[in-house]
Structures are given as structure tokens and as C-alpha cells.
Amino acid sequence: MSNASHLRGDSPRAYLTLPWGQVHYRAAGDPAAPPLVLLHQSPLSSATYEPALAELAGHGVHAIAVDTPGFGLSDAAPAQWTIPEYARAIWQIIDALGLGRVHLLGQHTGAIIAAEAALQQRDRVTGLIFQGIPLYSPAERAEKKAGYAPGYTVTADGAHLTVIWDRIRWLYPTISGESASRQVAEYLSVGPDYAVAYRAVFDHELDVPALAGIPTLLLHGDQDVLNRMNDVVTAAFPDAPLVTIPGGTDFVAEEQPQAFAKEAAAHVLAHAPRGQAPFTPVYTARVAVTGGRGGTANSLTGDFTATLVRPTDRTAAGTDPEELFAAGYAACFDSALAVVARRERISTGPVEVTAAVTLGTAPGGTYRIEAALRIQAPDCPQQDLERLVRQADLVCPYSNAIRGNTKVTIEVIGGG
């Protein structure tokens, strides 16, 4: 069976019964692993993600792809829902699945629903992945609402099938015939008025600034129809990495499931609560310190002894904990960068990683640190180096240890 033609697929499938009707979903992976709930674009279904589910599971993610109410094999809502109503329904689905905190991935319509769901129950969202999020201006929303998806009329001669086919081919001219054929079936399953979720999007104004602070990844194919909105979206989410998969259309999850799952899983695992992320011990270092910041440090697992000095006494011989942390962070990040470069088969040339760790005070008489990394690789093209650094930041255990607790800025200096 082609990986683009599965309304069924190989993933386990099931139904939930909720107040408005039944909800269909498919899932893969260990239920104890960090959960990722995937929300498709309309008027399609969870079949969009079928080829990627096993790949996500292979990376240690519990992936659950849901048919939004009214789409795929899920029963329709009793009336025209708003985006907040779709979002509340998603939380009812998540609760029925017995999930607590989750990562949400949404594409197009699904991205708007995922974002609104995050605003409704922010404390339960470990992160967001937007596979193309339509941040339309008010004028664009009004224009699209007036005529974007006019529907079709069922005719005895089947002419409406040509209407659907022509629409799909107009939207996605390069996708496979099998993928387009599956989408015809998905359109038919919704019925002539397939714009019900579109109308909800066009009527909704997303509070983007309120999403600040939620770890977010922008991930889609570079031929996705919403790739044109990159400037708008990256301006709206300045802290969110943008990863575009070369050659990928709106259906990159079925076209390139390994590349898609690799990027999505890395984001999920990097931001999973510590109790959820799988952990296999590799090495334990033990160092005994006496005398605090003005004392000595002696390794119990290696040949290391250091005289410690206070930051206010830098005339004395010795080092301080911030220097030790900076050395460890820089060394770790350099190694993580080398690992991902080997995976990507990219030669970086000489690399220098500099870490600056700043100790400061915080309200309430407490102390905290902030960190800055500077990665230089003059022989590596800037674009390649930026991509490698993003991946290294997800691999490096120092980055993962302090993520969400410590402000880290990263400067990347490549060549070309």
C-alpha cells in the first residue's frame, strides 16, 4: 500500500464517545512516552499523519492524531462551532484519552485550534508545533470568508467529483495522484459544505502575543501553501525556530515522514517534563566541594582539583563556578554540534564555541544565571550552521537541563 493512500493505515485506531458524538483517532508509541496530539488541516483527516506516526513512536513519542469533529470519521458538531469551541472539544478529547500535559501540533486550521487550546489551558501545554499557521489580516479573513470555499452540489452524473478534484489540484499541483484521490474521499466524507472549519478560522482573531513563552517550533515543507507567510509568522513568533523541509508540500508528513518526525520529536522530547522524557544513564560525575565559592573542588571520578574563588575576588588564583559551568556548556555544545553535523553529513570546518555565564540577582533576594553562546565556523555556510545549531541545542544536555529556567542567547557566525 502506498504511504499516501491510507484512510485506514497500520496504526491502531479507535473511537471516543463525547457529548456531541463519536471522535475517531489513531495512535502509535508507548502511552508512557511524552504525548503529541496532532490536529490536521480541514477539510481532511488524521490520515494526513498516518505515515509519520510510527516514525514519531520510534523517536520515543506517543503520537495521537485526531479527526477534528465533523471531519474524517468523527461525528460533526451540532452547530457551527467557533475556534474556542473546537479548542474546548480538543481538551475534552485529551481528557477522554487520559492525558495530562501534552504537546500540540496543528496544521493550518489545526494550528489555529491548537493555539487557542494552548491559551485555554496553558499549564497543560508543554509546547507547540505549527505546520503552517494562517495569521491572516482582518482584510484577508473577510475576503476569504466571502468566497474561499464555495462548496459543491451533488449531481447524478458525478460532475461534483470533478469540482473537488480540480480544487485539490489547484491547491496542491505537485502532490501524488494517490494523495489527491484520498483527499477526494475526505471531502466527500464532510459533505457539500466543507467550509465549516474555515468559517471558524476566518471569524477568529488569535491572541498571538498571549502565546509568548510557550516553546514553539515552526515546521513545514518549503512548498507548503502557507510558506508564503513565513515573514509574518516569524515576526509573530520571534523565539520560534523555523524549519522548512526541502521539497515538502502541505503533505510533508506523508511524503517525508522520517524528516518530519525527526524534527517534531526532537522538539517534543526537548520540552517534555523531566518525569516524561526517557532517560538512560550514561555517565555520572562526582565532585566534592569544601568551603563553598572560596574553597576547593576535588573530583571523585577523575583527576581534577580546582581552587575556587569568588567572582568579587578575581585577583586571586583559581576559578569560579560560573567559569566551570561555561567550560562545560561550551564543550558539551561543541560536541553536540559535531554529532548533528555527522548525521547531516555536513563538514563544518574548524568550530569555536564560547560560552558566557552571568551571575545576577533577582527579585526577592534570590540569584540566577543567564548564558550566551557564540558559535563560529567560518568555513560553514551561514544557513547550514544555523540549522545545525538549532539541532545541537535540542541534543546538548546542558541546553536541555536549563531550558525554560535560564535565559540563553545564541549567536551564530558562519561563512558565506
Give a written overview of the molecule.
The protein is of the alpha/beta class. The strands form three sheets. The protein has an eight-stranded mixed β-sheet, with helices on both faces. It has a three-stranded antiparallel β-sheet with strand order 9-10-11, with no helix packed on it. α4 runs antiparallel to α7. The radius of gyration is 24 Å and the shape is elongated.
Query: Uncertain spans, ≥5 residues at pLDDT below 50?
Result: none
Morphology call: elongated
The number of distinct helices, counting runs of at least 4 residues, comes to 13
Strand content: 15-25%
Helix content: 25-40%
Gyration radius over CA: 24 Å
Seen as an oligomer or otherwise, the chain set is: single chain
Q: What is the string of SSEs from the N terminus onward?
A: EEEHEHEHEHHHHEHEHHEEEHEEHHE
Computed structural class:
alpha/beta
